[in-house]
Amino acid sequence: MNTTNPFDEIEQFLGRTPFAGDRAWGRDLRTADIDVAEYDDEFVVMADLPGFDRDEIDVRAHEGRLTIAAERDAEREDADRRYLRRERRHESVTRTVDLPATARLDDAAATYRHGVLTVTIPLDAPDADEGHRIDVN
Prior knowledge:
With 137 residues, the protein is mainly beta. It has one domain: Immunoglobulin-like, CATH 2.60.40. It is built from 1 helix and 9 strands; from the N terminus they run αβββββββββ. The chain has one helix at 6-14; strands at residues 22-24, 27-31, 34-38, 42-48, 57-62, 65-73, 90-98, 109-113, 116-122. β5 (57-62) and β6 form a beta hairpin. Mean pLDDT is 77; it is low at 14-28.
């Protein structure tokens, strides 16, 4: 039995879907799609930010959280164009991720290629108090 929520249709009509983000007064307030991976020696966050320039992306770590924000304005006004509809005025994307306690922020690095931002943060070795893990065969 497939049940639908009538509010889902209203939200889709208004442009507020879980995947599209919220729209308010020509401003697109979305969250970036991300992948987060934690390895033995590093923490990696990959965020999809297609269409943004490097200088429009801001990456900050504060109080144990990594925040990725990107903001851009649409292309400049063109007097020769007569728009029938114009929604691409401004776009703002943001995402925040909790960082592991062992993150070494001073050694963090970020790259942006082909619309994907990759933030790599080295991790300190686990505390000696945790002991040494022995694999069971």
